[in-house]
Amino acid sequence: MHVSERIVQTSHLNHGCRNEMIIHWTY
After folding, report:
1. 8 A C-beta contact, residue 26 and residue 7
2. d(CA 9, CA 6)
3. What's the 3-state SS for the chain?
4. What superkingdom heads the lineage (predicted)?
5. What are the tens digits of pLDDT across the range 1-27?
């Protein structure tokens, strides 16, 4: 699993909406 996948779960717990955009281009 890539680090980005871990950020996805962390973002969902933290912000979610804001991090979702970041994860979009991070992937």
Report:
1. yes
2. 5
3. CCHHHHHHHHHHHCCCHHHHHHHHHHC
4. Eukaryota
5. 566 666 666 655 555 555 566 665 555
pLDDT of residue 7: 63
d(CA 23, CA 5): 9
Report the pLDDT value the prediction gives residue 2, as an integer from 0 to 100: 64
**Letter for the amino acid at 17?**
C
Tell me the one-letter amino acid at 5. Answer: E
Q: Which two tokens stand for residue 15?
A: 């912000």
